[in-house]
Amino acid sequence: MSEIRKEILAANQSYAANFGDKADLPMPPGRHFAILTCMDARSDPAQYAGLAEGDAHVIRNAGGRASDDAIRSLVISYKLLGTREWFVIHHTDCGMETFTNEVMDKLLSSSLKSAILDGSGWHDNGPGPGSSEGKYINWLTIKDQTQSVLEDVKRIRHHPLVPGDLPIYGYVYDVKTGKLIEVPEATAAGKVV
Ligand SMILES: [Zn+2]
């Protein structure tokens, strides 16, 4: 078994040993909100936003982007599980700023192995073959965090399955300070209509 698997299972054993009354938590989030955010390993919404099990929905993907699938989760979160406020939180130094659709497509076309990033951008050093299937995916990369938060709040706000009475707030998490910084134009775009 890999070292990581052993570590995970050991950690889970002690977690489950102290599970306590978490067994009685109801399914709907107790604090009635959802966060859409990036999968970045340095940012943990449970830590930076003070969440405990049972509090909130956290939807994570690369960039914290309002993809169709993220919106699917948000709509379920509201419609069936009672969240009433949503946060879109992108972050500084996001990996999604380091490439474009074209770069990703080119990398995947030459090799499926991990690429490396240096001062002049992403390069493949793994062997081929690659695949050209990457060109069919919009990787939802980011040029500017303020813009991407605004864009995603707007996309959610204007989605036909999202009700107007639910506020959506826009923030950027600073990986250097741990602070949440509001994107006021995004929160304004996400206000109740
Ligand atoms: Zn990120």
Automatic annotation (TrEMBL):
The keyword Zinc applies. It comes from the Bacteria. Its cofactor is Zn(2+). GO terms for molecular function: carbonate dehydratase activity; zinc ion binding. Keywords: Metal-binding, Zinc. This is Carbonic anhydrase. It holds the Pfam family Pro_CA. Binds 1 zinc ion per subunit. Belongs to the beta-class carbonic anhydrase family. InterPro entries: Carbonic_anhydrase, Carbonic_anhydrase_sf.
